[in-house]
Amino acid sequence: MSLALVAVGTGYYYVQYRFNQVTKVTVKHLQVAPAGTPFNVLLIGSDTRANISAKDQTSFGDTSTAGGQRSDVIKIVHVVPATGRVSVLSIPRDTAVTVAGDTTQIGKVNRINATYNSGPDQLVQTIQNNFGISIEHVVQVNFVGFRGAVDAIGGINLSFPTPARDDYTGLNITSTGCQHLGGGYALAVARSRHFQYYANGYWQYDGTSDFGRIQRQNAFLKALITQSEKQYNPLTLNAFVGSVVQGVTVDSTLSVKDLVSLARQFHGFASDSLLTSTLPTYSASYSNYPYLGALLYVQQPQAQQVIAEFLGTPTAPTPATPPPGPYGTVSTTTTTVPAPTSSPGGTTPGTVAPSATTTTIPTNFDPTPC
To answer: Of 15, 19, 229, 335, which residue is the least packed, with the fewest Cβ within 10 Å?
Structure first.
């Protein structure tokens, strides 16, 4: 959409030139949605350390400490052009799935972020087969592209109810209230899985790990939308695009025409209209997959209810190969807990054991857009 705004401000041929600089990837198993109908974009946050500078390696690590790539952020964006509705479904990185495609490298069952190691196509296949959600486009963002894009639009604003820190990502917020964050600190917030907050006289640990990180990423997305709405200066937009082309990869079917159409339809989209939800999962003390470490298993029927609401349909699609439960059979765990619902404030269901009730995840210490 930002590329399209540049086209409006400086000319279509210039944005076409810039768009040609964006890395493209062929994803064989993408679906095709008829023009004007709802479609889904898979947004991937890649943790690859390949081709980053020596300076950045001190913050992010290098290929010797984190080889390959994993999709540590997996969000599906559902766009309804006719109504202007946009919703986001987050899938926790440790969710157990039935792997699609070639299983010789990672096995028939693995955590979902492992399916990205060889590129987005296997991840796309796995999502479509396990959840019945069609994927029409893919956007991948790495650390450098994320940080540069935030800096180019002048940073974002997040309000912190308490001081916050994360020694793993370098986050260190010493003051409360609305804080202006540059790309480095914005990335530290979005990456934070070891979040700590200062309350009642001591530092307390957010034990929700990836679930808390998903919540903070959703807050970041809304803050980014708010900040982007203020940017109409062609020079600022050009700087943003210059940052994007260095750290963003899109599927080869996405065109400038698509972007311009989206910009026309959603240029006035407000951040508080963004609907967010997280796929409900649970943990298990024992499983058939101890060699994979701690996994999360899709909680049913809550997951089907959340997917249906995310897509705005009466029922969820029927998956071809549903995700497994801890003992290899299809995950059909039921509880008496009502399904979480999407809202502009977002939802982040917790993990539950097969016979337990849903864990309520506190969010009063998390940052919010301001």
So the answer is: 229
